[in-house]
Specification:
Rossmann fold; 13 strands; about 400 residues; alpha/beta; globular
Length: about 400
């Protein structure tokens, strides 16, 4: 229930979330804002989850979700058009506050335009500026009123650079585990409940999926038909498109277009969390899905590949011992990181087979993932009854009120 008067003017908020995880966080935030404030008029960039809670989508996330430093170039004319359509709507509606969620290539440009118009900016879910492209800190210092960070170490990073930052917790850390039972999950997706499942998560963006899919499916082919394979489809992608990409993978299909292993059962689902929960092991592209796997407690192998030029240029900018967020939170390597040339069907198969049976490798990872969950859920959980979305919403409302006061 909202704590304010129902006659209060609706809060007008622009939300910009260009990825599947971001639009989930955006939807959580909109619900929390409505509970704390009352009427909310939300509009911007996002996906179906945000639309379902009343956000007017000016731009669909799937239309601008590209990956890599160079891949974006071929999409520039389309992205430019979408960006200016959002600016036009922003000028028409004049939001009280803007919430930008991750997606830095788009959102930093948007932050500059918002700043020019005097609209306060809250950045929710920090880009990994502590890992690479630290020059962007100047953009945060110049255009962002407050950073809402989801990892404890990020608050200290921004404090060292004079940026107002609040640790609100990880949005996924407080979501309860799916309640669907294994038998029900298997029946829903026509899986053999007697077989172990392996979750395949190649990414939530088209280019990302294309770069990762062939080696993941090649690993599945090598692991063989004794397992079921579940592949959740991100909200930023369409099931038909993903099916087409699977069909195009040379590792699985011969020159006549027939499957090399007709008994390999790959099932597309619409629920990443349940798919991970009911899988023995996951093969997961670097990103938010790795945190989902860690929080659910499913052992996994982290994989990632980008275009050659992107990797050659980007690897010299990353100054960290680990790429994977789970390993960064743990402070050591607890999850295998198979990156670029080290990411092959053979290396993935090898790591998955180490984690399938009960034994030291699997137990060590289970214990390490429990440690990561404790770090992400600790501290704030004991000090506040509010969840991450409500802590973030309170910060957004505070910034919006400061902006209103300054304009008056």
């Amino acid at each position: 229930m909202a704590t304010s008067s129902p006659t209060l003017r609706p809060l007008r908020v622009l939300i910009s979330a260009g990825e599947a995880s971001g639009e989930l966080y955006g939807a959580q935030l909109i619900r929390a804002l409505a509970e704390l404030h009352g009427p909310v008029e939300a509009f911007g960039l996002g996906g179906e989850r945000m639309k379902d809670v009343g956000c007017r989508l000016v731009v669909e996330a799937r239309d601008v979700a590209v990956v890599g430093l160079f891949e974006v170039l071929s999409h520039l004319p389309s992205i430019y058009g979408h960006f200016h359509r959002l600016l036009d709507e922003m000028d028409r509606r004049r939001p009280d506050v803007a919430v930008l969620i991750d997606f830095p290539d788009w959102n930093f440009r948007l932050a500059r335009e918002l700043h020019r118009r005097g609209i306060p900016v809250v950045y929710y879910v920090s880009p990994q500026l502590w890992a690479w492209r630290k020059g962007r800190l100047k953009l945060v210092q110049r255009y962002v009123r407050e950073m809402l960070v989801i990892f404890p170490f990020e608050r200290e990073f921004y404090a060292r650079h004079g940026v107002e930052a609040e640790f609100v917790g990880h949005p996924l850390a407080e979501i309860p585990l799916p309640t669907i039972a294994r038998a029900e999950f298997a029946a829903r997706w026509q899986l053999d409940p007697q077989k172990l499942s392996i979750a395949l998560l190649p990414g939530s963006r088209r280019k990302e999926l294309r770069m990762n899919l062939a080696a993941i499916l090649g690993a599945a082919e090598r692991l063989g038909k004794e397992f079921e394979y579940v592949m959740p489809v991100a909200s930023t992608l369409s099931e038909d498109w993903v099916r087409g990409e699977i069909a195009d993978c040379a590792d699985l299909w011969d020159k006549r277009g027939k499957p090399r292993n007709s008994n390999l059962h790959i099932v597309l689902t619409d629920d990443a969390r349940a798919s991970l929960l009911h899988s023995r092991v996951g093969i997961v592209a670097s990103g938010t899905a790795t945190m989902e796997a860690a929080l659910i407690g499913t052992p996994f192998v982290m994989v990632y590949r980008v275009a050659g030029l992107t990797y050659t240029f980007g690897r010299h900018l990353v100054k960290l011992a680990h790429y994977g967020m789970v390993n960064l939170v743990a402070g050591r390597r607890v999850v295998p990181e198979l990156i670029q040339h080290g990411f092959t069907a053979e290396t993935v198969e090898h790591e998955v087979r180490r984690l399938l049976p009960d034994g030291a490798p699997r137990q060590a990872m289970l214990e390490a993932l429990a440690e990561v969950r404790g770090k992400l859920r600790g501290g704030l959980a004991e000090s506040s009854a509010q969840d991450t979305a409500h802590r973030a919403a309170r910060a957004v409302l505070r910034v919006a009120e400061m902006g209103r006061t300054a304009r008056e």
